[in-house]
Amino acid sequence: MLLYDANLSPNLVEHLSDIFPNSKHVFSLGIQSSDELIWEKAYEKKLIIVTKDNDFNKILEKKGFPPKIIQIKRGNCSTSSVVTLLKENCETIIAFTKNPEAGILFLV
């Protein structure tokens, strides 16, 4: 379902497995930091990219979606803060995944 970018903790997979099962972290796919490669893997595996990185917006503008993007618009914050943010927005995220006209979701 979700693909957590390198700028987010790999621990998110475990912390959120109850509400976002089958999610992955880029490290588990052997990807370190190539945004283009992350984009391609997300497309191939039908995953939604979760990131703090603005670079994916540029790719989305060029290529469109899928994959969809969830962008966390917070500066430095703890993993527990990200977990809380994603849990609090679970229903919004699920609705976003089902909306065929939405390509990006900003979470603040």
From TrEMBL:
Domain DUF5615 as annotated: residue spans: 2-105
The organism of origin for this protein: Leptospira harrisiae
Name of this protein: DUF5615 domain-containing protein
Entry superkingdom: Bacteria
